Sequence to fold (263 residues):
Amino acid sequence: MSNSAKKPRRQFRNINVVQLLKYRLPLAGRLSIMHRVSGALMFLLLPVLILPLFAMSMSPTGFDAFVAVASMPIVKIVFLVVIWAFLHHFCAGIRYLMLDTHRGLDKYSAQKSAGVVFGASLGLTFVFALKLFGVW
Amino acid sequence: MATPERIGAKRLVVGAHYGVGDFLIQRITAIILAVYTVVLLVGVLLMPAMTYDAWVSLFTFGVGGLPLGQVLGTLAFLSLSWHAWIGIRDIWMDYVKPVGIRLGLQVLTILWLLGSFIYFTVIIWGA
Fold:
């Protein structure tokens, strides 16, 4: 009792940005933070980019202008970022629903499914990129 | 101090339980959004050609005079707003510790999502 009163208790704080950049996360950890980043990105872009473009495409007078805007290379790259965010969030979300129902919870399966999600979301983004840039 | 009779399933449960509710709502809205995405994707793939009329009817199709496309779209966007609210609120709760700033950000988040919801409904009900 008297010993513990003398020693100040160790404090655990959030790590800072410099430490964060050097921190080696496992694949499932990377997937998790990208899930958060992609969700936040879509939230931020929703009323300032996604909905205005959607409004344009849904208007009889704006549709042709939308097609013209969407054919610009810079806009295509922006689209691709949003498409990646959606696909990552979608695929990682399905993995989380699987984990929530106690499937694949052990370390090996969880790392493996994280790899599958990265492969699927990046692969699908690549397919969309081919379509978007008219390669296929 | 916990008595031996109050352990396991018989433990004394306290709190408002909104955490479990939000957890479930986030999962349920996620499933609704995933299903709606697949429906839209199938709709796009079944289109003979990507024309203005085909694109608009994807969100405004009617069945027996009922605006089914708009109703489904509105329900999906409601799910999206609720889903995003829980996710963004969790981000503020994780990284923003001062209560006043956190509350301000939470209010802005609600306004941001509510504004988006209104915007979306105006687009598809007016088209």
Observations:
- The two ends of chain B are 63 Å apart (CA to CA).
- The helical segments of chain B are 18-46, 52-60, 68-95, 99-126.
- The mean pLDDT of chain B is 92.
